[in-house]
Write a structure and sequence with these properties.
Layout: H1 19-48, H2 55-78, H3 84-104, H4 110-135
Helix pairs in contact: 1-2, 2-3, 3-4
Length: 138
């Protein structure tokens, strides 16, 4: 009869030690930092425009990556406290601004960069809203 013994629901189990929670927070911290690194390298590459690499380009990439990662960490920390609609809108706005800025570094017009940023932001916002709306129990 041991196989019929009731068990605790999955959501209520506690980890055996504090290391699992610590590792999870470290991986949650690494994701925005990695994305910021990629964003900074790409921004520095676009700013360079096939010229020689100099200290200004390196500093520019580090600055762009740090700002991107900081904004993403703040959004990841504050976002879950928001309702579904503002949470999705915040990610859409962040994605639209980030994409529009990178696109403007390619030498395109501000109008085209803003338009594509708006389209990307609307798409990311709609996808985020769909994800939050289907995953959260109301």
């Amino acid at each position: 009869m041991a196989h019929a013994a009731p068990t605790a629901p999955r959501g209520h189990r506690q980890p055996a030690s504090g290391t699992a929670a610590h590792t999870m927070s470290r991986s949650a911290l690494m994701r925005p930092l990695l994305m910021g690194l990629v964003y900074g390298v790409y921004a520095a590459f676009m700013k360079r425009q096939m010229g020689p690499v100099d200290a200004g380009n390196v500093f520019y990439g580090i600055l762009c990556g740090a700002i991107f990662a900081a904004c993403l960490m703040v959004l990841a920390r504050i976002g879950p406290r928001l309702a579904q609609e503002p949470h999705a809108a915040a990610y859409g706005i962040f994605a639209g601004i980030s994409f529009g800025y990178l696109y403007s570094l390619a030498g395109e017009s501000i109008l085209k960069s803003s338009g594509l940023g708006l389209l990307v932001g609307a798409g990311v916002g709609a996808a985020a809203f769909y994800r939050y709306h289907t995953r959260h129990a109301s």
